[in-house]
Amino acid sequence: MTQIKKIGLYTSGGDAPGMNAAIRAVVRTALFYDIEVVGILRGYHGMIRGEFMPMGRKSVSNIVQRGGTILKTARSDQFKTPEGRKKAYDQLKSQDIDALVAIGGDGTFTGALAFGSEFDMPIVGLPGTIDNDLAGTDFTIGYDTAINTVVNAVDKIRDTAESHNRLFIVEVMGRDSGLIALRTGIAAGAEAILIPENKDGMAHLFDRLENGRKDKTSRIVIAAEGDDAGGAFEIGRIVTERFPHYDTRVSILGHIQRGGKPTCMDRVLASRVGVAAVEALRDGHRNEMIGVIHNEISYTPFGSALKRSTEINANFLKIVEILSL
Question: Which domains does the chain have, with CATH numbers?
């Protein structure tokens, strides 16, 4: 059993629904084991600047249902340098912090990986990102809420699409990963899904528009922001030029996908990994992400968590093709 007396806790990178539930779980689990917790405001940026605040039971009351992060978040170019990381370490030692819990995505864990290799301070991470693009966990904190937000929005868009016989190109988040688009496209009954991992998306869309049923009263296309076609407006322009008889509209959902109250699934996931993070530090784990695989807590080195395969489930694309007839 490792003697941990004070944990530094921070959120970094893009916010995700469920981060507050994870913060709550870490704080209350640490206090259960008589470990102090210091909140680090604005991620690595605040770590370098010494923006710390003590956290107790009351500081995390009534936050499990809130979106965003009470610890705030920011990106830090300075932390990418050895000098910046040394400043952060000195600030942590000045507060007698002897372990860290990081909540975030690939950028957060890239920073944690560099920091953990340079300084003798245990650090574990919780997967907080709506993109679900980390290896070592079936789902990331925020993903379930984000896809439900998208589906709710697309359901509303379909109402107006059917009223006017329109084709809607709906852009969702996913610069490097199409997992949000893929899952929500199935759930929303999309005509086609365009994602970075599939280079045949536009060809499939053209085939559907040329050879698909002509009696459909609405058509929905879900496009990840990182698709090869250049974004929703460019897709809309191409479709309008090639199929001028369609009344084509573009809708970019943007940052509403990051907000809102976390779903039950995200709250439970965040709570489970939050408790496991503190217990992992006590058991001597370091430089690992805490996730859930097949409903069991998993421990994945940061380097491996960042190496998620770009391959997607081919069955999902087949489902889209079958159900869009």
Answer: 6-142+262-305 (3.40.50.450), 145-258 (3.40.50.460)
